[in-house]
Amino acid sequence: MERKTHVKINRKEVMLAKLRKSCSCTPQKLKNFLMDFLPVLRWLPKYRCKEYIWGDIMSGLVIGIILVPQAIAYSLLAGLKPIYSLYTSFFANIIYFLMGTSRHVSVGIFSLISLMVGQVVDRELLLAGFDLNDDAPPASGDGSLQNDNLSNTTAFNLTIVGINTKCGKECYAIGIATALTFMAGVYQVLMGIFRLGFVSMYLSESVLDGFATGASLTILTAQVKYLIGIKIPRSQGHGMLVITWINIFRNISQANLCDVITSAICIVVLVTAKELGDRYKHKLKFPLPTELVVIVVATLVSHYGKLNEVYASSVSGAIPTGFIPPKVPEFNLMLRVALDALPLAIVSFVFTVSLSEMFAKKYAYTIRANQEMFAVGFCNIIPSFFHSFATSAALAKTLVKTSTGCQTQISGVISAMVVLLVLLFLAPLFYSLQKCVLACIIIVSLRGALRKFRDVPARYHVNKVDTLVWVVTMSASALVSTEIGLLVGIVFSMLCIIVRTQRPRTALLGQIQDTSFYEDDLEYENLSTIPKVKIFRFEAPLYYANKNYFLKSLYRLTNLDPNLEAARRKKYEKKEKQHLKKGNHRTANGLGIGETTLQLVPKQIDFQALVVDCSSISFLDTTGVNTLKEILKDYKNLNISVLLACCNPSVIDSLKRGGYFGKDFGCMQEMLFYSIHNAVLFAKDQK
Fold it and tell me: Are 108 and 95 in contact (CB under 8 A)?
């Protein structure tokens, strides 16, 4: 077979042509850019109103009803007031409607992202001198913004460059959250500009699942104190999960009986409703709004039963109505949280793109991953000016959205209108809502992630290495911190790949009877050995890290180390010459020359050709080429020919450049074969 001649591409000319094309500006190009940047301009004019509108309205209303209680609940995770969670849910839906390419994903507040934001907020509050447990009693009043701001201004005075010295705890907390969100959005937009979406490839399914499960354990732990109504310090830093559980058991005697009873009832109701919903989901036209019902009933019971005044049960307090005037995130705070924003940006992007691709594949349309990165980036940048925090796509809400007839992102606008209704008129009604009820909603929403523990045996059966990656990532995320857990998971999964290429499977092959195919002699029965020929398979790229393992495996399986064999022969020849010079046919120890031969060369070599199956060798580096040249030379000294079979074009090119076939490639046809069988036939024909 002859290789095709490839025309060399002048990369400089190509780059200059692309640069000229990208810098040119025409009306058509401007129009295309605008429509690519705002995909809504492409699909909205083609919207099939009669066909799509009712499904979009229904799914939008259902998601809006689910969003309100979840937004209020997830504010506990973020360490912020519920009003900011509602802002986040509102703006994220509007912006993704304009910029997103997925028709189905629900972008908004997400428990894992809220947890990551909350950990940074808590750390910065501690560093600024605030007490994380400085929970002021809920303010009474009409829920206006002015009353709420006054009630949440603490007695702390700060002197930080760029921050008003009269900034209270709530003011500083949302300042940190918006700065973090802005930086995460900037990272995502920059990743989109430089097309760095490939970063998500390093987050394998095992890493993401382990990360989500470990973070779920952290979320669960953080909510237990609200669940039973105890006041314990909010742990920060590494080992937060263990420290929190120690503090919980130390203070368990202070549990609020009212909160415990309320939590037990709410969890039973929520879990029962979820299980019934899962069992009869095919019969239900839309999911039961259990969270909303629980919140409404619990708020009424708490208000008329005066649970806060009589039993000291912790409640949400006043939630203001309307919108706070927009504010630019503080630049000095951005510098403080710039590093924390990077894992937040990556996790947010990966979850959004993976969900978008999953549902696009399911419903037979395409998304643009790069545009998704821009969309989620601006879902963080723009809302950060309006007192919102980081967002991402959420699987649970997306599943609900598709099951209720969603066709386009019009449903996201409907959901935003529901949240807007709460923001403008209904928010103060949640004043008496107990925090333990919100904690119950958060804990029950973790069912899916916590059920991953049940999948461990099946996962282990499928792939032990992936299970180990899952366990390590989950443990690091739960026991150390979420950010460290993600980093540990990525590094460990890459190390597993390196180790697997360092010590890959190796085998001697035998011939399948009456065929021209060859397989592992240890794995299959009734294989025929080829007289005078050894066939060696190495199932990995050959590079500097596994060179020694390649040689050791080859010598072990063929039962011959050519270097040792050559040394024995030289030693024997040297002694033989010495005795022949003396005219003595007996050696110094009384053995004959023939006996000396047996002593120095223990056994006769049982093969005259070595065939190396290169079908699993995807590439060679310089060390790999030199290793093959080394065994070619060493075996040639023993009159054993080395034949390569099934090499791919890149391996052949590496061997040519490395001089394996000589200067003029004259011996190439006698050293390289396109199948193992051809190499074996050639070896048999050799004298």
Answer: no
The two structure tokens encoding residue 204: 């394998």
| Cα–Cα distance measured from residue 223 to residue 227, given in angstroms and rounded to the nearest whole number | 6
Rg of the chain on CA atoms, in Å: 34
527 beta partners:
512
User: Domains of the chain: which residue ranges?
Assistant: 48-129+168-235+246-316+326-498, 506-571+603-685
Q: What is the DSSP secondary-structure string of 295-330?
A: HHHHHHHHHHHTHHHHH---B------S-PPP-PPP
Cβ neighbours for 271, distance < 8 A, ≥ 6 positions apart: 444, 447
Q: Fill in the amino acid letter for 651.
A: V
Q: Which residues contact 171 (CB under 8 A, 6 or more apart)?
A: 149, 152, 153, 164
d(CA 212, CA 484) in angstroms, rounded, equals 13
CA–CA dist 237, 119 (Å, integer): 8
The Cα 6–Cα 501 span in angstroms is 31
The tens digit of pLDDT for each residue in 641-679 reads: 999 999 999 999 999 999 998 877 767 888 999 999 999
Other CB atoms within 10 Å distance of the CB of residue 404: 21
Instruction: Read off φ and ψ for residue 325, nearest 5 degrees.
Output: -55, 140
Distances (CA, A) of 520 to 44, 524, 538, 541: 59, 6, 11, 18
Q: In the 8-state DSSP scheme, what is residue 464?
A: H
Tell me how many helices (H) and strands (E) the chain has: 28, 9
CA angle in degrees (0–180, nearest 5) for 23-27-30: 60
611 forms bridges with which residues in the sheet? 535, 643
Bridge partners (DSSP) listed for residue 528: 511
Could you tell me the pTM of the whole model? 0.80
Residue 202 Cα to chain centre, angstroms? 7
3-state SS, residue 147: helix
DSSP 663: S
What would the two tokens of residue 392 be? 């991402």
Max Cα-Cα span within the chain:
120
Q: State the Cα torsion 376-379-382-383 to the nearest 10°.
A: -150
The SS3 call for residue 612 is strand
Q: Give 403: exposed, middle or buried? Use CB within 10 Å, 0-12, 13-18, 19+.
A: middle
pLDDT tens for 158-216 read 444 444 445 788 899 999 999 999 999 999 999 988 888 777 777 888 998 899 899 88
The DSSP secondary structure of 508-548, one letter per residue, reads EEEEETTSS-EEETTTSSSEEPPTEEEEEEE-S-B-TTTHH
- Give the containing element (helix H, strand E) for 576: helix 562-581
Q: How far apart are CA 478 and CA 242, in angstroms?
A: 9
The superfamily (CATH) of domain 506-571+603-685 is STAS domain (3.30.750.24)
